[in-house]
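Reopening this ticket.

The earlier resolution said the output was attached, but the attachment link was broken on my side. Pasting everything inline this time so it's all in one place.
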Amino acid sequence: MYLSRIELHGFKSFADPTVLRFSDGLTAIVGPNGSGKTNIIDAIRWVLGEQKTSLLRTDAMNQVIFNGTRTRKPLGMAEVSIVIENTQKILPAEFSEVVVTRRLFRDGESQYLLNGSPCRRKDIVDLFTDTGMGADAYSVIELKMVEQILEDHSDERRHLFEEAAGIVKYKQRRKETLAKLDATRTDIERVLDHLTVLRRTVGSLKRQAERAERYAALDTELRSLQAERLFRTWCAHRNHCQQLEVQRQLLSAELETITTAVATESERISSLASHLSSLENQRNELSVFEQQLSAERSTLASQCAVLEERSRATQSALDSLLEQLRSRSRTHDRIESDLESAQAQLAAAVDEQQVAETQAAELRSTLDAERQRYHELLSAQAQIAEPVRLLERDRERLATMRAHIRHTAEQLGMRSQRLAAELEALRTRSGEVDARIRQTAEDRTHAMQTIAELEQELSAAQARKQELEATIEALRVTKQQLVETASHVRAQRALLESIVEHGELDPKALENAPVQPSVSFGDLLSAPADVAVALESVLGSIAQYPVVETKRELTLLGGWLRKHLRGKAHLICLELVPKFPPPQPLPHTAPARWLAEHISADEPALWLLRALLEGIALVDELDRADELFATFPSIRAVVDRQGQIRTRVGIALLGRAGDTEGLRIGRRKRLKMLTTQLAELDKQQQALEQQIAAAITERDTLDLDARTSALRTAERTLLAIEQSLQEATSQREQLRSTIERLQSELKAIGEEQAALLAEDVALDTQLRESQLQHTQLLARQAEIAERIGQQEQVLSRLDEQLRTTELSAMRIRARIESLRDTIARLEHQRSTIASDQEDTQSEREQLQQLRSQLEAERQLKSQHLAALVSQLEAIASERHALDSELAARRSELTAAHQHLETLRSQREDLTTRLHMLDVELERIRTLQATVAEQLQTQHGIEPASYTATDHRTDEEIDAAINRLTSQVASLGAINFSALEEYTREKQRLDELEAQYRDLQHAEANLRDTIAEINATASEQFLRTFEAIRAHFKELFALLFQGDGDADLVMEGDDPLDARINIIARPKGKRPSSIEMLSGGEKTLTAIALLFAIYLVKPSPFCILDEVDAPLDDANIDRYLALIRRFSASTQFLLITHNKRTMEAADILYGVTMQEPGVSKIVSVRLTEPNQVSHSLA
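Inline output:
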């Protein structure tokens, strides 16, 4: 079986339909990075059912669909098909060629096809399970998977072994079976909980059905009495209604008389109110006219005051205008004088300005000539400065060079001394390192011995821990059995203690009695369990009678009961029981025995029992009672072991025994026995707990974690020692190399110091010559600088004079401008004052005219105001007369209102009484209707046609109703559907019990299945592991040229979950872990493991994605030789960048991106082809 071809369309970068054909041997896929080589591997994984987007190098599954480029649109579907030649029938399929297809659409729809037929992903996964060809099998290996396989905590390694062993399906079946077992256990617990609840429910429903029957009889009698009592109540309400009707008629007549009187008085009040209203209207009209006149008077008075005030204000304004005219005249004279003075000052300032400008022009001419001479001196100075600067720079360069040479020589001397000291120190350290290497070698030997001792101690502790855990588990099982037994005993004791003695005497009622009966008659008896039910059924309530010892106690208790207890109670006095002989035994042939023969008790309780049970026989079958009555005249009654009784006179007690029947016989003795048994069980349980605690303490003191930690610490110590030894050896080599280097460096320093000394002498001569030239140039430069200083003083003096003259001219110009502004301002003020004088004179004339008008208007208003005051006095006199008449009419109207209120109060009182009577009448009628409705709805009786039949008084009927109600209440809550529910729940109980038995059987079958799976898978895995281990050792030695040691170690007791460790030690190395190997060594180790698996269970094809990247040329050759060895049975597909790998391939596929974003395939067959196939997109 091998992979014959792959067809891609729209998958990642393969936008066009692409076909890759494969044959036996090696096929290599090459191409630049990013061209899409690994997309072929992703396509194989994807079509085989891979769901993890991380393994497919995407964030979401729909990203495997071609997403388009600048020139191409995205596709709507990705499709990949692989064709497998199944000629050897490795795949469990009937076809010799198996085609697996997977499609994915952008809307998320996914399809799987097997030879063109739709199927599920699970079908594809199951088809390739345990064949080494699944999406996560060892047929596809990437470089990053090499690291994952070699990681200490990686699950990849374990998965490879499970695939090779073919136990993946077994582990899957075990996982599914364990899930079913957990579900079954959950179902068992759930059904058991339901059974417990349902059993209690069925027992409760049975008792409820019995109470429901008793309730029905009492309810019938109670409803009859309640109907009689309701009818009598209805009759009483009817009579009461007739009496209230008569009272209502009398009140209605009286109310009508009062209502007529109220109407008459209301008419008289209306007439008085009309006349009073006319008078009030007259008075209101007079008051309104009076108010209008008063308002007009106030208005005129206010207007007169305003006119007078305006006249005074006008006079004040005239006085103010006159003063303004006088003030402006004085201001005009002052402005004329100031204007003449300013014009004279302006003429003088113009003359001063002309003199100052002439002086400034002369000074500027002199200053320009002096500046010309100053610039000539500066030019001469600059011509000398450049040679000086060059000489100074040359001197600085020479001085710097000499200082550098001397500093270098000094540094070389110091370095020579330091190197000599360092050389001596290195020689000393070399000796110390040699001593440390010897000491470290001894420490390594000691550490290895310590590790061996710790490993032995850890193994012994682990064995002891397993032994202790087995002991603890056995003790816990025994303890659980004791707990279950104790729980059963406690339940029996609780059942006995929970039995309530429904006797005639409550023990709480006898707390203050002079005698306290401690036992009942049933406590004195002892009987087998199958006889106790029959005995309790015969004795009935006698078994609950309190027992006293002496006649005196009986007398005392009787007197106390008569005084403190209402009612009567039965007591048994043992002193008064006469001696009663045992009965004559029945013949051996009789199918019965006397009941008293099965009971034991102390005298005189035994005598009383014989008397009570005289003539009562115990039988196994109650049907033989008639036969016994006919054969043995001495038998009065027979009882069977279920407590059913038949008497000779026809009385019978039939039915099933209750759960607590028989427990009252010998209850105290049985309680004592159960308490003793429970105490013994508690002691045994405590002893087991002590044993378990001791075993746990011993197990915990083993402290495997500490021992393991100590072993790991010792291993780390050994690793640190070995690393220290390697570091010390490397350090010794480095020291020797450093010593040789320092000796060479010291020799070179001596030669360099001699050369520097000669160079220093030459530089000193050059410096002295440069110093002489520099001194001459500086003297010439000083002379020119002195002349420049003198010229600068002349320039400064001239410049100061010019600035003074220009400043004086500027001040004169400013004064001229200021005087001109002042003259303009004064002329403007003069014209403004003249204009204001004319305006003020005009305003004064207007104010004089306004004052005359105001005075005339004020005199006219004063005359009108005097006339209004006379008219107001006449109106006030008329208003006083109307007020007197209004007061008289109001008094008369008030008296009429008081009389009307009295009549209305009487009417309201009658109305209220009539309303109350109506309310009472309606209430009685409502009660009567309610009682009638109750009779109709509850009892089906029409009151009008009903006739009372019970001649008892109401009190007697109420007493009977109370008695029956109490009896019904004593029954408690009644479930009227108890019988129906009992039948239904009993059927459910039977079904659940059958289901519980089925689940227990299913649990046992699942446990057997898991045990069988574990045995088969463990055996198969161990066999495969040993085979892979042997091949791994062989291939590791082969890849490392016969040198090196490797092994596979399994940690853990369960082979199906044990951890698999890899030990690899190339020649000359003892790494403590795989992580310390180089990249190439890790790759070769992983390749050895993979091909060891192939030797045990070959994979039809193997895809290696750049696994050869870390290998050098020598390792590449061994790697390719190994692949060639396996290529006879396994088809190899190699993705590589290595030229040697390409040379070894039979077929080369080149992946390119001629168009950005779109992968294309070019194939070349390097061997003689049977059929060369390539596809160009």
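Reporter confirms the inline version is readable. The chain has 16 helices and 24 strands. Confidence is low (pLDDT under 50) at residues 500-504, 1168-1177.
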